[in-house]
Amino acid sequence: MKNNFSYEAFTDNTVFDSTTELKKIALIDDSFAQKSFSDKLRIFFNKLFPNCDDAASIEEAQRNILITDQLDLVDFMKQDLISMPSTAFYTIIAQLLDFNSDLDFQLDEGRQFLLQTGQQLLAEKLVTIENVDHFMFNALILRSANGLSFIDNLVNDGLLEKNFRQQIPQPLFFAGKALAVFKNADLVNENVYIDTRLDTDHDGHNDLVLLTVTRPKKASVLFKLPVILTASPYYYGTNDMAADVHSPKQDLAIKADYAFQTSADLDTSSVLPALSSGEKLDHGQFKKTTASGASSFPLNDYFLARGYAVAYYAGLGTRGSDGLRSSGGEDETIACCAAIEYLSGHRFAFISKKADASIMADWSNGSVAMTGRSYLGTLATACATRNPLGLKTIIAESAISSWYDYYRENGLVVAPGGFQGEDADVLALDTFSRWFDAAQMQRIKLAFQQSLTQMKQDEDRQTGNYNVFWDERNYLKAASKIKIDCLYVHGLNDWNVKPIHVFNILSALSQNHHITVKTILHQGQHISPHDIRSLDYLDICNMWLTHELFGLENEVTQKLPAIMVQDNLDPKSWHSQKSWTKTDQRQSFNLSDLTGQTELSYRDNLSQLYEAKYADYATYEKDFYGADQQFDQAVCKIDLPDFQESTINGRVQIDLRLKTDRKVGLLTAALIELNPSTHTSSVTKSVLNRNFQINLDDRAIPLRDFYEVKEKYHLISNGHINLQNRQGADLADQVDANTYLDLKLLLQPTIYRITRTSKLVLFIFGGDMQYTLHPKTIQEYTIDLTKSRIILPFL
């Protein structure tokens, strides 16, 4: 049985001096240069078993490492060698990386196996006294079977404790990355309260928000630390919002003519005077707290062991804090920026809600990063647009760049995938964990109910137009103000925070040549890729934050590709490309030429078909896109021609001339591949018997990866539009019944590789049950195919 391990290494370790790096971790010392070749090998291989207590147990472990069928590592090192074949060296290393002889590779093919799995090996055929340190360094940066680098696994097994005889912890770096040196016992927890200088609950007092910090105890005395902040409105739990979601079962409204005028930025004069600092304490006087018990972010736990402080912040309207939720409003951004300024040492915080004694983060080195997925990553982008003091970088996963694009699309009320009927008011209710404290809720119940009522009015589900409410929550407007390096991560099959969000922020930031922006695009849905085997994501983030927050030059901003994208045909393959938002070539196809007809009609009764037969969207979509005959009259399906092997890169454009029998209408277009011969899954599964350790204690999580699947269909991309908003979400025009109109619809951006056997089909229809409203009235549509086309962008 062969192990399917394969990964793409995007981090580059060629910029480091091998000897210097090995000395940093005390694997060798100054006397190493005077040793014989055999002695150098013995020093190296004897130190690769830190979990063995004595020489006898080390020898026992080495007996299990084979070079040939008849020669183990112990007998091999007894020889007086002046060199060794690199094939033998990498055969040893492959086993130390926990790959299995006969299961994963043959003994005489260890080097070839490592190369085939994507590892970056040295090219020399012989290991000699002149290059042995290079081979030693190269071995330590290779990826183990559990997904971590070899050096990370050795550190987890106690390498540094043995080498330094427990003189660690202090921040320590190897090959441009921070190593795990801090255990839970080395850490301290602190709760502080940040003065936001806002009064969102209108009680006449400045809103204070709770910030939880975990950091090494010795920080500020021996060293100062950077901070990773995750702003998670879900940190203290969520409410049951099932009864409060909006029903999608309704017709579209007939809109009045509408043109949105750009709103002004928030008037900062509305920010209140700061509270007095009161008695100023130092951290020796500050009573420490226990851990909050709330769930943490695995990526942050990984860095907490590596010399970073980690802070969690739930924000306004959450448990332990004052204020109300606003689902992405500017008040949330202002409050979060206040927390960043405390963490970077630029403002004080209070040690209790009494606000009578304050403290500074004197342990901070002044550098803060923000991390997180979904709402968490969204707030990272939001804060970056305001450039608070100390914010140096963000790693934003599946982040919203404009809340309109999350809950609306081209004048339509459109749900995020998996949450039909949700809207901004429902999310505010969901994250209002302040509700859990009865006294707090009783005091602000009226203000909370009034805020929800106002939000329901302002979000305007009646028309779906872009308005002042959504303009306040559009971070793209201020993208040009971002002055920090950004790492964006997104799933190309994320139908919750759809790919348009990362595409648009990249497009906006492409004009800013003073910052570095990198992007990782995986084939997953709404996930964090920290546990994915086929990508060195943790190493990428480690190099990124080591450079951005500790200031260590490791060339990560120069060496990482602009775009790293996982292949949709092969889950083990990742590609690099320079751009996503710019298209090399476009091919246009007239729909009449494709069909041999001049017009097609369809009858949108999909709401009725869905409600009569289906209880869930997944089963419905399987039948709908799988070409079930019951839908034949409700959809136009147009076969696209065969293509040479190529890659769709960007946004597919649909130009249509159509008419309908009513004064309203909605259009959905979807590009489908039918019966793809092979495809990368959009979900992951655990890798058998492979777990990796996040920190030096007991935090281990399963290694996961994408896999190949057989599908009846695959949704490449889709798009939705209200016919009354054919000129834009900020413009509404009348629709005349039975009169042709022209519109352009851009589908969700994608990167999608097709082959000569790919069968692509364009679906054109009305209500999209999982996303749009479900119209009650059955409606007829006719497309003039002679004036309609599809335009595909290719790499």
TrEMBL record:
Keywords: Aminopeptidase, Hydrolase, Protease, Serine protease. Transmembrane segments: none annotated. InterPro entries: AB_hydrolase_fold (IPR029058), Galactose-bd-like_sf (IPR008979), Pept_S15_Xpro (IPR008252), PepX_N_dom (IPR015251), PepX_N_dom_sf (IPR036313), Xaa-Pro-like_dom (IPR000383), Xaa-Pro_dipept_C (IPR013736). Residues 1-159 form the X-Prolyl dipeptidyl aminopeptidase PepX N-terminal domain. The keyword Metal-binding does not apply. SUPFAM superfamilies: alpha/beta-Hydrolases, Galactose-binding domain-like, X-Prolyl dipeptidyl aminopeptidase PepX, N-terminal domain. Its EC number is 3.4.14.11. Residues 542-791 form the Xaa-Pro dipeptidyl-peptidase C-terminal domain. Removes N-terminal dipeptides sequentially from polypeptides having unsubstituted N-termini provided that the penultimate residue is proline. This is Xaa-Pro dipeptidyl-peptidase. The lineage of its organism: Bacteria, Bacillati, Bacillota, Bacilli, Lactobacillales.
